Every structure is written in C-alpha cells, then in structure tokens.
TrEMBL record:
It comes from Sphingomonas rosea. The chain crosses the membrane at residues 268-291. This is DUF2167 domain-containing protein. It holds the Pfam family DUF2167. Keywords: Membrane, Signal, Transmembrane, Transmembrane helix. InterPro entries: DUF2167_membr. Residues 1-22 form the signal peptide.
Amino acid sequence: MTNAYRLLLSAALLSLAAPALAKGEAPPSPQEQQKAVAEFKASLHPRTGVIALPEAKARLNLGQGYVFYGPEDSRRVLVDAWGNPADAADGVLGMVFPAGGDFSNSWGAVVTFEDTGHITDKDAASQDYAAVLKDMQEATENANEERVKAGYGRMHLAGWAQAPTYDANRKVLVWARDLAAEGEPEHSLNYDVRSLGRTGVLSLNMVDGMSRLPVVKAAAGDLGQTVQFDAGARYADFVPGTDAEAEYGLAGLVAAGAGLAAAKKVGLIGILLAFGKKFAVLVAVAFGGAWRWLKGRFGKGDDADGQLQD
C-alpha cells in the first residue's frame, strides 16, 4: 500500500470496517468514498499564484503548478480528513499541494513560520549530520513511550531519506527522514525545506510515502525556490548586535525538526517530544480518524448542510 498514512485509502477503510460490520453497519462503498472526498475538496478554497504570508514577512510564488489552502482549510485537512489531533494545526499558515492533486492522493506541504532568531550558517560545511542522526534516532526511541500514552503507535527513525544539504546562495536547508511507524506496511517520508530569513525560518514540511521519494524530492527543490522574504526580512538584512540570534546553528535546526526557538534550552529529547505531537503525528496518524470522518458524512450524525460533526 502506498502512502500508508493517508486516511482515505480504501484498504485502510476496509480494515476499519470490521468492528462496524460486527455491529451490522455497512462500510461506505467506493462510490460513496469518492463522493465524500469530492464534496470535501469542493468545500475548500484553493489559491494559486503569489501567496502572501504576512506572519512570516514572506511570500510564495507558486504560479499555476501548485495550490495553496489557507489556515482554516488546512485545519480541516489536517484534523478532519487526516485525523490529527486539533493542536497539529496550531500555527499552520497553510498547506501546499501539487495542482491537480489533493489531500488524499498526493504529497502535502505544511507551511509554518518559527521566530527562531537569526540562524548563522557560517559553520555550514562543518556540521556533523551523522552524529545528529544518531542522537535523533535515540531520542525518537525514548519518545515512543509518550507517543503510546498519547494513543499513537511507536515510531522509528530508519535514517536519512536525504542527508541535510544547504544552498548557501538561496539560504535553504533541505533534509528528509525515513520514518517507520509500527503496523504500517510502508515507511513514511518526512521531507523538510527550511528557508532562512532575517530573524526566523519559513518551514515547508512535506509528508508522503517512501515509494514517492523521487517525486517529493523534485517538488521540494522547486518549492524551496518559491519562497521570497519581504524587503527588510531577508537573511541579508540581519543587523548584528540589534536583531535576536538563535542559540543554535543548522545542525540544531535539523534536530529541532521545525526550527523550535528553544532547541538548545529544551534539549534534543524534549524537542522531539514537543514536535511529536504537532509534526510526527502527521505521518503516523490513527486510521480511526478516517472511519469516523466517513461515518460522519454518511451516518445519522450529518447535519442539514453536510458539515462534519465532532
């Protein structure tokens, strides 16, 4: 099964149907599933072209090749469709998908901005990412107890799907993690694109299945070029001695996973525990969310205008 974490895949839905069938409830047919997805997609508000992100003092020059969904639509995709806890959508500025695709059959990029302070790249060439990976793997294992308590399966960091690489000209750091969630037949791909600004980092966190690595890798390289900070907010606009500076460099940014400002203070294990609730969950969501969502669409819990019920 490709993209195992996708909550709208038929195989996952069928596997969840067993408890319902035991109670005499019929699972939704493929036609009903398709109708639900089509209705949900039609209720969203995709945008193309230049997307202003005032919170980040930046913009995305997406052209016609990508579509952007704003914060409210993104919350519905992340929480209602993908089954993440509500706080997974906190602070999300939007999501980007390839044009012609959607939240159920293609990668999605979660857009956030972290006010990290200025991150120096002076030591970019000397970063020991092998050591960072080892520490992250250990911390991921240590965080599994908390994941289980929160109701999610164990997660294992298998390794880099792409080792961290830094474009010094564009000020873009890219890396990808190969994540194995227990009980899932395919490893998940978590692809990170970080564009450095004057005092913060714009993050595009892409999720998909490992089988689609070539597709996501190409898209990540392209998306990194769409980011443009406003005049005065660019990396080159940094004013030493005046602007706040991060307490870590590029390796700390990778370890944090999404540019957590308190990375050095919290410590690596604390970082992964904190982000495990917001980001790692995106690639290890509970499949039960799909069944609840589709039952809400077809069951007696629907309201008059077809909105989702809690």
